[in-house]
Specification:
It is built from 20 helices and 13 strands. The strands form 2 sheets. A 7-stranded mixed beta sheet has the order 3-2-1-4-5-6-13, sandwiched between helices. A 6-stranded parallel beta sheet has the order 9-8-7-10-11-12, sandwiched between helices. The protein folds into 3 domains: 235 residues, Rossmann fold (3-Layer(aba) Sandwich), CATH 3.40.50; 52 residues, no CATH class; 142 residues, Rossmann fold. α3 crosses α6. By secondary structure, it is of the alpha/beta class. The model has no long low-confidence stretch (mean pLDDT 91). It is globular and about 65 Å long.
Length: 493
């Protein structure tokens, strides 16, 4: 059985997972998409049965094709309609390929990628595709082509429960298996009810950061490990300078120095404030960028400074907007960004080390683009106002700003602030469904979180993938349409 993997930046992890899939009889050959030639040693030295004719190397095949083939707007328009996918939205999800390229260059790249993927899948159709969450233009194109051809496209990501994986094929973090399980749970058994209540109680008493956040929360420093990372980055860049995911060593070093300097300057200038006892506020966490959570899930809300200003304009009088910096953002933004936030009337800028859990508990509401803090707000019985596609946006207590004209956001926030906590039935049912439909393990970038490569975790990911493949063969869960794709492309069937 032939399979295909969009490796992204996880080639060492997915190579290890594929080894289990091959030995367990779930694939006899494997194709895939690689960003550059620096991945060649992994593919060459692996005992996974890779099919070289089914491997796409972006920096060689796609870039060369884009250089020689002019964009055919008629063909692109036709394919956009057939796939039911907004190509402009897909382009907006790209963090590497658009910068420095003209509109025509981007169209050439879009066309070259799409045609190369289609030809690859038509030449040797894979039985299934596996990858991480959809995170960029090329992975979105792979998902669209696979879905059009009825090829299961398995995304592997965090289930937002401790050490749990969600595997799904609807794309855009739409967890169709969880939703199907949710509909099956008309009434929870006593043991299920007890487990859900205990989960909520445990979270409130001992809240935990998402898996991997402890690593990302550290202040930027310069040490031996950083030096090793810089050397690794430089080697990857010089192995293939056309690989869009590689960064010159000197640029990476400059970014680290700049981060350290910004953190020190922000502290020296006292840019961040603290919460004020007795103040009423809505809490907004600054989202880490660039990241798929906003690029893919909410491309209409990428300008956070503009969004913060719009939210501040929409709050009832007497309610402040508390804007909290993300732990992972230390030093990543220019100081002018923070000064601009402080100048917005009615806002209070909080630093990354403020107690998130205390802030949620004291808030009138929490508002996020797609952040996990909205989910945490629901666990604390706080209303969540969300702007993008999120896995919990169907639950009571969620107010979807995307469904409301901006001129009516004031009413939306007033309704959220004045709302009573909903009964816990739906939340408990969703928690049980999420636990039932998820798997042991965690999914992270192995370059940043090497623990993901531990043998037990690799085995867990492979076993989870095998389980959903078996399940899909017998009783496939219906695709779950994100709101912007309802009735389009694969969701029209």
């Amino acid at each position: 059985m032939h399979a295909y993997c969009f490796f992204s930046v996880h080639i060492s992890l997915f190579d290890a997972v594929a080894r289990h899939l091959a030995s367990d009889g779930y694939l006899s050959s494997l194709g895939g998409f690689s960003w550059g030639r620096s991945d060649a040693p992994t593919l060459r030295d692996s005992d996974v049965p890779y099919d070289p004719s089914s491997i796409i190397v972006f920096s060689e095949e796609v870039l060369a094709r884009a250089a020689r083939e002019p964009a055919d707007l008629e063909w692109l328009t036709r394919r956009e309609g057939q796939l039911g996918l907004s190509f402009r939205r897909a382009i907006a999800a790209e963090r590497h390929l658009v910068h420095g390229r003209s509109y025509d260059d981007v169209l050439r790249l879009l066309q070259a990628g799409l045609r190369t993927i289609e030809e690859n899948f038509d030449r040797k159709p894979p039985a299934f595709v596996f990858t991480e969450d959809i995170s960029c233009l090329m992975s979105m194109l792979h998902w669209a082509v696979a879905s059009e051809r009825g090829i299961p496209f398995w995304c592997i990501g965090s289930a937002r429960l401790p050490n749990r994986l969600s595997i799904y094929r609807s794309g855009f973090q739409a967890w169709e298996r969880t939703r199907r399980r949710e509909t099956q749970l008309a009434e929870l058994s006593p043991s299920q009810q007890k487990w859900a209540e205990k989960f909520v109680d445990d979270f409130r008493n001992r809240p935990r950061r998402p898996t991997g956040m402890e690593t990302r929360a550290k202040r930027p420093t310069s040490n031996l490990e950083d030096l090793k990372n810089l050397v690794r980055s430089a080697r990857r860049y010089w192995a293939d300078r056309d690989d869009p995911t590689s960064v010159p060593g000197i640029q990476a070093a400059g970014q680290r120095i700049r981060r350290i300097a910004r953190v020190e300057a922000a502290d020296a200038m006292s840019l961040f404030e603290g919460p004020v006892a007795g103040e009423r506020y809505v809490l907004y966490p600054i989202h880490f960028q660039p990241e798929a959570s906003t690029l893919v899930q909410a491309p209409m809300y990428l300008d956070q400074l503009a969004l913060i200003e719009d939210i501040a304009k929409s709050l009832p009088i007497g309610v402040r907007l508390y804007v909290k910096e993300h732990l992972s953002n230390r030093g990543r933004r220019p100081l002018s960004f923070y000064r601009a936030i402080r100048e917005i009337c009615g806002t209070r800028l909080l630093g990354p080390d403020e107690d998130t859990w205390a802030l949620i508990q004291g808030a009138e509401a929490v508002t996020v683009i797609t952040g996990t803090m909205g989910w945490e707000a629901l666990l604390y019985d706080k209303p969540a106002v969300v702007f993008g596609d999120v896995f919990y946006d169907h639950l009571p207590g969620v107010f979807r700003a995307r469904d409301v004209p901006k001129d009516h956001w004031h009413r939306l926030f007033s309704d959220a602030i004045g709302s009573e906590p909903p009964p816990h039935d739906a939340l408990h049912r969703f928690l049980v469904a999420l636990d039932d439909s998820s798997f042991e393990g965690f999914m992270k970038n192995p370059n940043t979180f090497p623990a993901v490569l531990e043998k037990g975790n690799v085995r867990s990911i492979a076993s989870a993938l095998e389980a959903v493949i078996d399940e899909h063969r017998s009783t496939p869960a219906p695709l779950l349409a994100p709101h912007h794709l309802e009735g389009l492309g694969p969701f029209a069937r």
